[in-house]
């Protein structure tokens, strides 16, 4: 039986990938940072490895003698050294893959990683793609488009103030958005069907505009939402006021600027499409939000 290693299972994409593999009877080891995070996965039949992606020797040992490794660069790193923390993690993983000889690695990247710089968080993904591609393993880089699940960040202002904050230059320009569940499913498929050589796959989903997303969210909440356009010079302030650490807010603002300038053009070797709709994602987000509220009250 093939054996796959999946990181990032406390996030949406990693969890979806691991779940898909387990549902198909594959042997799966999940990487978590502490024992408590692995209990549910152990109950579901996964093996659990406790450690950090920044630990080269740990990753090397976990992935050794396995068939494939799904990984990513988390964003919940040291907020005062956002890019540095993620690049050190990329270096550690690249070293571990070189040491272990794992044959295939699937990495969650982003369309914005087409650029080496000036693209916010994606500059680290570009760096990681290049580091992993040089480690000797076959690399499948999954460059996902905008996540539908980002709508969750608008839930609080939508519910409390009836507004939908917009950081993009147009409310009516449609662009592809993919659900993280589809990304996880495609990641699992990539793991079990390794390509003959390294490749970049652009991942797309249904096309929506900001106005359409706001309308769908408003319909789910039973209200009409007012779209509030945040000008570029106000992006960092708005994000930090919402609780985003400043370095990450500056990186996100840089990514929005690159998108507005038309610089984030897909350039993969091929593309795949997810089919999940924004209504399904909004319904999931509302369920999770309500469950978290009930948990906080108990």
The class by helix and strand makeup works out as alpha/beta
**Number of H/I helices:** 11
**Chain-averaged pLDDT:** 95
Number of domains: 1
What is the CATH homologous superfamily assignment? NAD(P)-binding Rossmann-like Domain
Question: What fold name goes in the CATH topology slot?
Answer: Rossmann fold
- Which class in CATH terms? Alpha Beta
Beta fraction:
15-25%
Strand order of the largest sheet: 3-2-1-4-5-6-10-13
What is the straight-line distance between the termini? 43 Å
Biggest sheet, open or closed, and with what strands and sense? 8 strands, parallel
User: Measured on Cα atoms, how large is the radius of gyration?
Assistant: 19 Å
Number of strands: 13
Give the overall shape. globular
* Regions with little confidence, pLDDT below 50 for 5+ residues: none
| Helicity range | 40-55%
SSE map:
Blueprint: E1 3-6, H1 12-23, E2 27-32, H2 35-43, E3 47-50, H3 56-63, E4 68-71, H4 82-100, E5 104-110, H5 122-133, E6 138-144, E7 146-147, H6 155-161, E8 163-166, E9 175-178, H7 180-192, E10 199-204, E11 207-208, H8 210-221, E12 226-229, H9 235-241, H10 246-260, E13 270-273, H11 278-297
Parallel strand pairs: 1-2, 1-4, 2-3, 4-5, 5-6, 6-10, 7-9, 8-12, 10-13
Antiparallel strand pairs: 9-11
């Amino acid at each position: 039986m093939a054996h796959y290693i999946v990181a990032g299972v406390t996030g949406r994409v990693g969890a979806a990938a691991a779940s898909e593999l387990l549902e198909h009877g594959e042997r799966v080891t999940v990487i978590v940072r502490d024992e408590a995070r692995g209990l549910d996965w152990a109950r579901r039949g996964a093996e659990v490895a406790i450690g950090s992606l920044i630990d080269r020797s740990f990753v090397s040992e976990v992935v050794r003698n396995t068939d494939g490794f799904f990984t990513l660069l988390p964003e919940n790193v040291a907020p005062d050294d956002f890019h540095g923390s993620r690049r050190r993690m990329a270096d550690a993983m690249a070293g571990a893959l070189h040491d272990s000889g794992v044959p295939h690695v699937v990495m969650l990247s982003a369309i914005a990683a087409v650029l080496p710089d000036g693209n916010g968080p994606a500059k680290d993904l570009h760096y990681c793609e290049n580091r992993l591609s040089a480690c000797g393993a076959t690399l499948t880089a999954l460059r996902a488009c905008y996540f539908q699940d980002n709508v969750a960040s608008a839930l609080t202002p939508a519910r409390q103030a009836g507004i939908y904050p917009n950081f993009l230059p147009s409310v009516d320009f449609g662009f592809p958005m993919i659900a993280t569940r589809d990304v996880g499913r495609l990641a699992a498929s990539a793991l079990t069907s390794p390509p003959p050589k390294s490749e970049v796959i652009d991942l797309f989903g249904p096309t929506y505009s900001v106005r359409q997303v706001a309308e769908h969210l408003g319909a789910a909440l039973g209200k009409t939402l007012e779209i509030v356009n945040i000008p570029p010079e106000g992006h960092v302030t708005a994000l930090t006021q919402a609780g985003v650490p400043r370095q990450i807010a500056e990186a996100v603002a840089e990514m929005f600027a690159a998108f507005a300038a038309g610089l984030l053009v897909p350039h993969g070797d091929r593309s795949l499409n997810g089919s999940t709709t924004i209504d399904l994602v909004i319904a999931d987000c509302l369920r999770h939000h309500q469950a978290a509220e009930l948990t906080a009250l108990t």
